[in-house]
Structure formats: structure tokens, C-alpha cells
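Slack export, channel: ligand-projects

TW: morning all. Re-posting the request from yesterday since it got buried. We need the structure predicted with the small molecule present, not the apo form. The ligand is magnesium ion; the SMILES is in the block with the sequence. No rush, but it would help planning for next week.
GE: picking it up
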Amino acid sequence: MFKYIVIRLLTFLPTFFGVTLISFAFIRVLPGDPIIVMAGERGMSEERYNALMAQFGFDKPMLQQYWEYLWGVLHGDLGNSFVTKRPVWDEFFTLFPATLELSICAMIFAIALGLPAGVIAAVNRGKFFDRTLMTTALIGYSMPIFWWALLLIIVFSGNLGWTPVSGRISLLYYFDDVTGFMLIDSFLSGQKGSFSSAVQHLILPTIVLGTIPLAVIARQTRSAMLEVLSEDYIRTARAKGLSPGRVNGVHALRNALIPVITVIGLSVGTLLAGAILTETIFSWPGIGKWMVDSIFRRDYPVVQGGLLLIAVMIMIVNLTVDVLYGFINPKIRKS
Amino acid sequence: MSLLEIRNLSVEFASASGSFRAVDGVDVTVDAGDVLAIVGESGSGKSVSMLAMMGLLPWTATVTADEMTFDGKELRTISAKQRRDIIGKDMAMIFQEPMSSLNPCFTVGFQIKEALRLHLGLNRADRHARAIELFEQVGIPDPEKRLSAFPHQLSGGMNQRVMIAMAISCRPKLLIADEPTTALDVTIQAQIIDLLRELQQDTGMGLIYITHDMGVVAETAERVSVMYAGQKIEEQEVKSLFAPPHHPYTSALLSALPERAVSKHLPTIPGVVPGQFDRPAGCLFSPRCSFADDRCKAEKPPQSSKELGLARCHYPIILTSEELA
Ligand SMILES: Nc1ncnc2c1ncn2[C@@H]1O[C@H](COP(=O)(O)OP(=O)(O)OP(=O)(O)O)[C@@H](O)[C@H]1O
Ligand SMILES: [Mg+2]
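GE: finished. pasting the full C-alpha cell output, ligand included:
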């Protein structure tokens, strides 16, 4: 197992360098000039422009710029934001907990509803619940996120006034950042009403971000369960006199989890992509919104560094998923 | 009163192309301590009839019977919960494919202890002790270590022993062994058959042994019932079945045995078991029967008398004493 993890880590290296190259190139092929964007509406003189070009090193050859960037990355230096002048690294870790909190909630939402729904649909294959669920899942999967978000905002925030429209917590509350997770921090602060405010702010973004993973997980669970339910060992389990709950929920689900975990791992990638839209719509101060803002500001170091960190994050998740397989199905561990 | 009494059992599968009768009016009787063998070619409905009795068929199956009693309980009318209390405890089954019949995600220990907790309510320590005892009983060496093995770490023969241990874990009154040795190699086959026979003699449970192999029937069973295309076509004491079989199909099966072959060539039965679309109007065996005439092709044969092995045949074979000699 240990050897396996080391080998997997080694295969990260080419991917890692590929991502540095792509993130470096991506922002540079976008039309627009970072110095002009900085200048704003008043414009700037020729000399000032050239001085800034030199200051940020944009006058050097591309290859040299890339080399300097890579050199910095290898030394743990992702550069400073053009806009805030703070290190990209710091900004990322200030904002990341907001995204992480939202993603975790969205994933819990998707798994908590998707797994049981998929199991029930498979067990009642072809019946009313199954058909309804599969249709709903298809709609959920193909619905544009922003449209879905706006619809929820109109109904629950606009018409019903149940949930707030933006941010992580009401401005009435202020407390120190301990963990960066609003739910935990507000709880620790002990301020009356702050925790429930944090929860209310999370509800709509969680639903919006969790919808696609929910649809994917429900469908995958259903099809994996259908396959497993026709296996001989399920018949053996039933022949033992076990209850349907135990047969489906323990004997079948455990085997069906392998493909489901794969899609959960893959959803983490989509989750981060979805976070960009969701955070922008709900003014959620996480890395999704940060990336979008930085692209508009042509904040090169932030876009490069942010993309790299997100990519590394996804690679770690994929590795974790692979290791999890072995625990769930010992047969895979052997090979 | 017999332990198991099934009368006129039929099973129909609904499919896109209409319904298909896999089991057609079968009777099964097993007394306590009885060993009944069921033989027949592939697709003759042996497994389906047993699964129907256990309530393990998928929802596409419709099961009908005039009577289906086990140990004094009418299986057709009891609730699903009551049935689950019986199967795995008083009535247990082992299957054809040991490798795929055990769950790959759980240790064999977990899988055997599960039944012990469910039906006997044993505590953790007692479950462990009983599991070890069972493994010893079915001849699994080093049981303590084997309990924590996963099915893929054991051989097919070992897995079948695990299945047997699991099936007898709650001391069933009836054990159904559905071709338990088909997937194993020959030496292991003999061991498993010996094991089952020993267990049956030691515990006095009823045993239904499903097989293709007439040779095994002769060694194992007291009574044998022959199935063909969903019907029971003959049932006899083993001794008398081997003396003069009454149904031409049984006779053909027997002469297909290597040690009974008269000529150098092994006689086989030409043709195949009729499927969903080519069921003959009269006797189901008539297309393959060397004695069949027009009556056989047109009329369904009735069941003959007990002396003639209940053979479903218009012209049951009756050998005269000169022919026997
Ligand atoms: N779930 C099912 N749906 C539809 N048809 C089925 C199903 N299970 C079995 N059958 C059909 O029922 C018939 C009898 O099958 P069964 O498994 O009882 O045969 P068998 O006598 O046990 O044969 P074998 O010796 O190969 O195990 C076969 O024609 C089979 O195709
Ligand atoms: Mg079978």
C-alpha cells in the first residue's frame, strides 16, 4: 500500500509541471494587458507603462518569465497579487476555507440524498419512485447552474424571504477567524443567532452547488446497485434470511460503492468549477469568486497560483479516492 | 407428516416475449432425515423450483402451488418476515458457484457470524467459538486464521466448505445443495460429496441434492426424482431406478453413464431440452425419444402408477425378467 502511494505521488510530477505551464500560458493568451487594466480609466504615460512592464518583468522573454515563475513555485513562492500586493499563498489560504466549507456542505448534501435515493430507486426498479427520481436527476444534471440559482433566490429569498441572498453571515455579527469555517467559528463565538445566520447563508449555495453531484451520485448509485443486486452473493445473503434493509444496505451497497466513490472523486473537480459560478452568484468570498475577479483584473500571479493550487487539490482528492477503494474492496488492494 | 411437502408447484417467468413456464406441476416430498436427489439436464428447472420454495426468485417469477408446507408451516401464506425466520435457519441452501456466492467485500468470518447473530442471537464470543467449531466440522484447516480471510484468498473448494459451514450453522432441518460440486475439480468434488453425506448422517437433517451426475446419485441418495423441461418425469427409490428405469429419458440418462455404456461409444441423448418457443404439444421428451409415436407427439402423457415410478410416459418401459437377466 505504501509503495503504491509513493508510485502514485511520483506520477504527480509530470501533471504538476503540465499544470504550471498551462496556468502560466492560460492567463497570457487572454486578450488584455495587465498594466493597462491597472491604470484604470485615466490611462498612463509611455514611460510609466514601460517602467511598470520592467518592474513586473513582462519585458523579459517568455521562456525566462516561465522559468522564474517555476523557480519561485519550486521554492514555495507563488508571487504577490498585483492588486492587493499580498502573497498569493496567503490569499489562497484565507479564502480557501470558505470554498471548502461550501464544497463539503454541498458534497454532504449530495451524498446524503443521492446514495439512499439511488439505493431505493434500484430496489424499486421500474416503479414510480424510480422513474420520478431518474427524471428529476436528468433535469438536475442538465439544468444551467446560474438559472437554477436565480430561481431559488427568487422563490426562497425574494418571495418567501426565508434565506439571505449573499455572503457567509449577516453583517450584524463579528468574531475572530479561528478555523476559517463560518459554521465552526460562529458556534465558537457564542454569539446568539450567529450560528443560525451562518446556516441560513449556506443553504441556497449548498443546494445550488450540490445539485449536479446529487444527480450524478443518485444515477451512479442506482446503476451500480442494479448490477450488484443480480450477483450470486446477494442471493446468498437473502438465503440467510437477512432483512431486505441489511441485504441492500450492507451486502449490496458495499459492493456498489466502488463506482460511486469514483464519481464522488470526479465530482470534486466539477464542484470547484461549479464553485466559481455559485460563489459569484451568492457573493461567497471563496477561491471561485477570487479566481473570477482576478481573471477580470488580469492579476497574473493570482490566476497562475490559484489554478496550480486547485489542480494540486484535485490530484490529492483522486489519490485519496484510489486509496479508499482498497479499503472498501479488499480484492482491489491485492492487485 | 413429512418435513417438506410440495404439490403441483409451477413457476412462470414474465418476459418481453411472453411468459415462460420454467417449472410445471412438480411434486416434492422429503421426510426428516431423507436424502432426495434431483437430476436433470441444464435448464430443466431444478434450481428454479428450489429457489421458488425458498422465496428467492426475482419479481418476474410467479409461483403457484396447491400445497407448500415445510415443518408444519404453509410457505405460501406466511409473511415475508416469517419466511426470513425459516430460511437460513431451518431450511438452508448452498449454491453452484462458491466463488461468486460469497460477498467479496466481507471476510468469511463476518459472513458466517452474521447468520449466527441473526437466528441464534449468540453474543460475540459465542459466535466466534461456534464459527471455529463449524469450520472444523467442515474440515477447514487453521479455522482461527481462515475466519479473517476474504473469499478471494481461499480456493473454490475452501469457499464451498465455508458455504456449507454457513448453511449448517443453525442446524437446519433441511439442506438444499444445488450442484455444489459442478464448479470444482474432480478430487475436491469427491471430498465435498463425502462431507455432505457425513454431515447428513451425523445431524439427521433432510438433504435435497441437485445434480447432473447419475453416478453421484447412486452413491448419495435414497430417492431420486428426474426432471425434464420443468416437469418431474419419474421418481423412484435409487435402487429400483437403477434396476429398470421406466421413463425413456431416465433410461437414456443412465446409459449415458460411462460405466454403463455397452458399446465403445458413449451414447448421448440427441437434441436439447425444449425452450420457451419450441415446446412440443404432447410429451415434452417426444422429439428426442427413440420410442415416440404419433400419440406421444399429440397427447400429454399422464403420470403412471407408483410401481412404474410415476413416469410421465404413454409407454413406460417395463422389462421382463428375461430382459433383466
Ligand atoms: N430469473 C429468471 N428469469 C427468466 N428465466 C429464468 C430465470 N431463472 C431461470 N430461468 C429459466 O428457467 C429455466 C430453468 O432454469 P434452472 O436454473 O432451474 O435450470 P437448472 O435445472 O437448475 O439447470 P442447471 O443444471 O444449468 O443449473 C431455464 O430455462 C432458465 O432459462
Ligand atoms: Mg441450476
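GE: first-pass observations. Chain B has a mean pLDDT of 86. DSSP finds 13 helices and eleven strands in chain B.
TW: perfect, thank you
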